[in-house]
Structure formats: structure tokens, C-alpha cells
Design a protein that fits this description.
Length: about 140
């Protein structure tokens, strides 16, 4: 009888532990899906306009690395709804920061180079970076 009680206790503990893990995994998966969906919206807005005039393009930091700083920079046209776009970027960055904290995410801690401007190449925005190397 004692053996059955031990087995029953183990089964119950395993069931609760398993459910708890599934719940945690489900929450993390939900958070990841929310981030992915918001990122897709941001990219769709940014890529909704062809880059023909670089004067109409700007850029902003996007995302939050676990060590700090942005994950990337994203170019966007000033002809889109920039207020909504920048609100989505801000929300995404805040949510990614919180995700990193909640799930103890680590990153490579490398610093993403900040562009100095945007140019149009074949209808797409490309970043221009400051030349940090001294000429020979």
C-alpha cells in the first residue's frame, strides 16, 4: 500500500509539474508570437513605399538586445503614417525588452552600427554609415 501511495504521489507531482511547464511554455510561445506579429506589421509598413527620393526617408532604432541597445535600425518613408509606425516601433522595443527580462534572454552584446543617412537603391532604402577607417 505504501508503494502505491509513493507512486500516486509521484504521478500527481509529475502531472502538476508538467502542467506548470506547459503553462510557462505556452506563455513564452504567446509572447514570441505577439512579438513576431508586431514585427511583421512594422516591416510591412516600412516596406509599403518604394524608395525613390531619399529625402523622404528616415530611420529609427528597433528592438531591444538583452545587453541593451537596439537589435537593428529600420528605414521608413515620411509619407506613411509615421505616428502609428513609431508607436508600433516603441511598443515592439518595450515588449522585446520585457520579454528579455521575463525569459532571461541573453544576446551577443555587440553594438549595432547606427546609420547616418538613407539612400535609395533599386527602389529600396539602404543605410549609409560613417566611414570610421582613416584613409592610407
Amino acid at each position: 500500500m505504501k508503494q502505491y501511495l509513493v507512486i500516486l504521489t509521484c504521478v500527481i507531482v509529475a502531472a502538476f509539474t508538467s502542467c506548470e511547464k506547459d503553462e510557462v511554455d505556452g506563455v513564452r510561445e504567446r509572447d514570441e508570437q505577439r512579438l513576431e506579429a508586431l514585427y511583421a506589421e512594422i516591416k510591412e509598413m516600412a516596406e509599403s513605399v518604394s524608395c525613390e527620393d531619399a529625402e523622404e526617408w528616415e530611420f529609427t532604432a528597433l528592438g531591444s538586445k538583452a545587453c541593451g541597445g537596439p537589435v537593428e535600425y529600420i528605414a521608413y518613408s515620411s509619407t506613411i503614417d509615421t505616428e502609428t509606425f513609431l508607436e508600433k516601433v516603441k511598443l515592439y522595443t518595450e515588449l522585446q525588452h520585457q520579454f528579455n527580462v521575463d525569459w532571461k534572454i541573453t544576446s551577443d552584446c555587440s553594438v549595432v552600427a547606427k546609420p547616418i543617412d538613407v539612400q535609395c537603391v533599386d527602389g529600396k532604402p539602404e543605410f549609409i554609415y560613417e566611414n570610421t577607417m582613416e584613409p592610407n
